[in-house]
Amino acid sequence: MKFLAVIGNPIMHSKSPRMHNNAIKLLGLKGVYTRYCFNQNLNLREELFKLGFDAVNITAPFKEKAYEIADFRDKFSSYIGSSNTLYLKNNKIYAYNTDGIGFLESIKEFKNIKKALILGAGGTALALAYILKQNGIQVCVANRNDKKFQRFDNSYQTSLYENLEDFHFDLVVNSTSAGLIDENLPCNKNILEKILVNARFAFDVIYSRETPFYKLCKKYDLKIKNGLEMLLWQGVFAFEIFFELKNKREEIKNAMLQGLKLLS
Q1: 139 is in an annotated binding site
Q2: 101-226 in CATH: which number?
Q3: Which intervals hold domain SDH C-terminal (predicted)?
């Protein structure tokens, strides 16, 4: 019996338990998946072992800390210094990041993207920026301060919101938590409107509600997605790690979709 969870703060909005538990059930596996709201000041490594987890998904604000406490890290995590999946075995922690490949899978229908703007500069932004760059897309990262820009190498353009001079992007991504539990936009509305009027696609990593960013994108008739498909696909890839599965991806995806009540 595997003991699994998603860890974050806040975390009650997470749909991961529905996805994973349904996949566990339909694939005939032994395990249970729950969610935990951890205090940001706790010793994450100590707490994970104390509670007896076999593996966990990690969300904000613990992705960087998850990377730091790992004994072994996959290539993606090592590049961006952030992990969203931890596998615990023999008192060792193995760290992975499935955000990038989950995001890429979820925007497959967004065609001919040449330039992308990512709002926010946290761990999720770095993962998305990296996977976009790996696929030949020019990436600009904008944030309210420059503290986190040092993690982005010179192949990315970085800018404070108020210093943006180029407002022409095919894809605009909100990687911030703005709108998750409030009515805030990721940046000043006037700046955002200058960007959205020129864009074709938008993506909001938040999936639990229609954020002000999402609503504003609809106003400008952009083709927009929220983070639900990204959640689905990063969950599929994490599930393969949790149960060491191969050649079951379609079954996992369909079971998770059913858990989210997205199947007709």
Answers
A1: no
A2: 3.40.50.720
A3: 227-257
